[in-house]
Amino acid sequence: MVVQQTVHPFGQASEPVLVSGQHLIDVERGDLASARDFGRWLSSILLAQGEEIETTERDGAVTVIQTGWRTVRKLTLADPLKAFDAWNELWLGAAAAHDRFLTVQTTRTLGERGWWIGWKIAGR
Q1: What are phi and psi of 104, to 5 degrees?
Q2: Alpha-carbon gap, residue 91 to 97, rounded angstroms
Q3: d(CA 108, CA 67)
Q4: pLDDT tens column, 93-122
Q5: Could you state, in order of their start, the residue ranges of all structural domains in the chain?
Q6: CB atoms inside a 10 Å sphere around CB 62
Q7: How many Å apart are CA 48 and CA 52, to the nearest integer?
Q8: How far apart are CA 29 and CA 99, in angstroms?
Q9: For residue 91, how many other CB atoms are within 10 A of its CB?
């Protein structure tokens, strides 16, 4: 959903700014439509970061698959799996803020070919 709103970025005394873009709207449906909405939003954010993304829908769930993790490719991470888990909490929090009745199951592997990440999004 595209939302336009006027915000005062530095408080009411500041000059208002019109913000337009794709935003998550807080819903509490816990259904496939909500899972689709969140899957589209997550995919668009990851694509904007330059990630390789594929989205599928099967058996009442939306799955977002990311191949590679460009965001950290030039970083030396002391513990890449823990770094991923911390980063992933941002997406889990966004899902909960969008619809607290969604479930998000994250699968991630780091092998010789790099990262493979999947988020399975469904209602409860």
Answers
A1: -130, 115
A2: 10
A3: 10
A4: 999 999 999 999 999 999 999 999 999 999
A5: 29-123
A6: 24
A7: 10
A8: 7
A9: 20
Q: Long-range contacts for 44-50 (Cβ within 8 Å, ≥24 apart)? A: none
C-alpha 23/C-alpha 12 separation (Å) is 22
- CA-based nearest residue to 96, from 117, 121, 71: 121
Give me the amino acid identity at 22.
Q
pTM (two decimals)? 0.78
Residues across the chain: 124
Q: Which residue is associated with the tokens 């998000």?
A: 104
Q: Are 53 and 65 in contact (CB under 8 A)?
A: yes
Map tokens 């780091």 to a residue: 110
